Amino acid sequence: MQQNTGISGYVLLLTIQFVFIVIFAIYTDYDTDLRPKDGAQSEPGFIIPKYGHFQDIHVMIFIGFGFLMTFLKRYGYSATGLNLFVAALCVQWAILMRGFYEMEHGTIKLSLTNLIGADIAAASVLISMGALLGRISPIQLLVMGLIEIILFASNEYLQIELMKITDVGGSITVHAFGAYFGLAASFILRPSKENAKAGELEGASYTSDIFAMVGSVFLWIFWPSFNSALVDGPEQERAILNTYLSLAACTVTAIIVSALVSKDNKLDMVHVQNSTLAGGVAVGSVVNLLIHPCGALIIGTFAGALSVIGYRYFTPKMLEKMRLADTCGVHNLHGMPAVASAFFSAIFAYFATKDAYGDSLYTIFPGMKNSTMLEDEHEMIIGGFGRSSEKQAAFQLLAILVTVTIAIVGGLFTGFVLKSPTFRPLQTHELHKDDIYWETPDGHEYNRDEHLQ
Question: How would DSSP label each residue in 202-263?
């Protein structure tokens, strides 16, 4: 028997969209700079700042993530289609949730910066989706996304605005949060002991792996934009350079280590699709710092090896010992490299000095401003300012601890919500299958494999 969302489920989804329309009507408006001004004229050939970065991140969210998850041989429609659906919904929700922390006189002022931030927030939900791919319904995915964005926005504000950490590439606030939120939810929804193994359709075909590789290449190409979109000037150029070098070293290392640890010393496509991207995550929290080009290469090399080892040894053990399923291996691509990035950020923060950074030290590490530099006495919030480099390093470590804690607690809570009688869980024979929710072409090879079920 096949399950589908049902009319009531689709009505609920449409209702949520109408609620968004009402909230946008009441609480949002264009940013002041986007309003027409008397006598103001656009310069010929003017290019909107950051639009290139916005386009690149947009491609990552809607093509990169979507196609990366098409590796499941009978779940391509859902991987790309639900990725589009979830991202489009979460972008709207993220604009509101993040905007509520930045309201001016009760209004969320919208600009391109808000869209970039919303896309990045949606990435955290898509990472969590990867941990549960093929094992929850679209309605459950929707509910998870709505809850996660609320917690994501709160944690992001806590880390960036209150604790004043540096995390330009989002390794702490996006990758670690999304990975451990998804894994915690997956833990609550874990299979029974009898079914604690990879499903019959939880694997790739030759064609599906090629499509997934397309997603990987898009992510690889545009990752420097993801890591550099929130900074400008020399910081942005350093972020692009460090990300690219880290990705390059990560790719070489991941492919070599894959051959060393895999059966018959052959390359594993899972490693090539995923572990080659881990360098972009591992360098994220330090991407705008003076880590030296050699440092970027070292970080990428470490991340590539760590990720491959995670896929080869950790993921199977997590399923075997803990019954913790991680369909896309987000622990290996996003989780562990993000934790490593937090430790790298603590190390480089510890050695950060005014002599090395000049005045940009206080832009990169706002918490290191002394009291005479503050424009507003209300900026003296958590931990105050005038931090030493040692204290800033401690705050970087505290950030990953707090983030992972919030993510795990939030994920556990969400898992219990998704496990409630309100939602009918997918049965074992319904996992990782498109035709539960999609019309599939008659005569397609998909339908010839029904005997497997």
Answer: SS--HHHHHHHHHHHHHHHHHHHHHHHTT--HHHHHHHHHHHHHHHHHHHHHHHHHHHHHSG
